[in-house]
Amino acid sequence: MNAQVTPLLEISRLNGGYGAVPVLFGVDLVIHPGEIVALVGNNGAGKTTLLRAISRVITASGGMKFDGEDLLPLTPEQVFARRLVQVPEGRQLFGRMTVEENLLMGANRRGNRAAIARSFDWVYGLLPKLAERRRQLAGNMSGGEQQMCAIARALMAEPRLLMIDEMSLGLAPIIVDQLLAILDTIRKQSVAIFLVEQDVFAAFSVADRGYVMETGRIVQTGTAQELSNDESVRAAYLGAEAGA
Q: What is the CATH number of domain 9-83+159-239?
């Protein structure tokens, strides 16, 4: 990525946590328009906490700008209005609502009905399984279909940056592969993607660049290929999947 391109998200020396309990320590991270950037690390490394800091759900200090605007003074609602949208870990769908009703929740801040209809057409074209299930209760679908629905709900908000927390969690490898292919299609619609994953192999297979987080600190960064080939990363995260 050209270093002269203005970052979409720029985080510098970010600290954050829960009350008096610090979790993030001096985090530096940049995402440019049109990129897929992966943040990887073991459970408890602080990945979800970083997403919560970006979304302004928890207290943080340091530097954090989105398209040049300081995010720190904003509320979660104001961050969402800037079209910085998160797909939460565990999907968090409304199980007693239909697929289509869940998707409408993603568009609830948009007033242009014609534009919302176009978004439905695009999302259903991207995820035809959801079109088949549009009248089905979200809680009755498989885990893979629920993850598709969660991503689609976020897309209905017209994100400029889509943050996805543990997309592969609990899903069969064939479903994960389908979702990874969908991310590349989403990126082609000028949507940057921040993919937060424990599944390092999956994350680096689709990302342009990556960051490795341990105990609330970024300990390595580079292109996805560089990190995939790094012996310390392979030993710590890729294991047998990386092959010889």
A: 3.40.50.300
CA distances from 10 to 30, 54, 58 (A): 5, 10, 18
Q: Provide the pairing of β-strand 9-18 with 21-31.
A: antiparallel
Joined tokens for residue 127: 């995820």
Helix (H) or strand (E) holding 149: helix 143-155
Tell me how far apart the alpha carbons of residues 129 and 143 are, in angstroms, rounded to a whole number: 13
CB 128 within 8 A of CB 181: no
- Token pair 């999947």 is found at 241
CB atoms inside a 10 Å sphere around CB 161? 22
Could you give phi then psi for residue 238, rounded to 5 degrees? -85, -35
Any idea where the domains of the chain sit in the sequence?
Answer: 9-83+159-239, 99-158
Closest by Cα among 190, 207, 169 to 90: 169
Predicted TM-score of the model (pTM)? 0.91
Q: What is the pLDDT of residues 191-224, one digit of tens each?
A: 999 999 988 989 999 999 999 999 999 999 999 9
Instruction: Indicate the SS3 state at residue 232.
Output: helix
Closest C-alpha to 206, from 168, 234, 169, 243:
168
Per cent of the chain over pLDDT 90 is: 80
Measured CA to CA, the distance from residue 203 to residue 224 in angstroms comes to: 8
Quick one: the chain helix, strand, coil %, rounded to 5?
40, 25, 35
